[in-house]
From TrEMBL:
Domain Ig-like: 34-118
Organism superkingdom: Eukaryota
Organism encoding this protein: Calcarius ornatus (Chestnut-collared longspur)
Membrane-spanning residues: none
Gene: Fcrl1_1
Protein's UniProt name: FCRL1 protein
Pfam families, per database record: Ig_3 (PF13927)
Length: 120
């Protein structure tokens, strides 16, 4: 279902060899804001060895699209990435931090709880 599907609908059918038409029914499609944003991580427990790979995935419990994703780290800094996952191919000492994902539908924003990543 898309927002553009809002409108009035009816059906037609044959009843005892006569065509009949139902009453009009109004259908209103509404946007559902993103909620239930959560993170998962590989390797488990968010502990990764120096130089190894870290993958963070952001999932949304509910929300209608299109959805956009953004990745952030604790403290000031630039946007880390966009899309439902973030991959750091060779983690360094400065990658130990709290990470979070923000999801937007253009009107509202939902954010995951922060995830502590430790580089060993």
């Amino acid at each position: 279902l898309r927002l553009r599907h809002s409108g009035h609908y009816h059906c037609k059918g044959r009843v005892l060899s006569q065509w009949r038409e139902s009453e009009l029914v109004a259908v209103a499609a509404h946007r559902v804001p993103p909620t239930g944003v959560s993170l998962s991580v590989q390797p488990p427990r968010a502990q990764v060895a120096l130089g190894d790979r870290l993958v963070l995935r952001c999932t949304v419990g509910m929300g209608t699209g299109p959805l956009s994703f953004s990745w952030h780290r604790e403290g000031p800094g630039a946007l880390l990435g966009t899309g439902p996952h973030l991959e750091l191919r060779h983690v360094g000492d400065n990658d130990s931090s709290q990470y979070r994902c923000q999801v937007s539908d253009g009107d509202s924003v939902a954010e995951s709880d922060p995830l502590n990543v430790t580089v060993l």
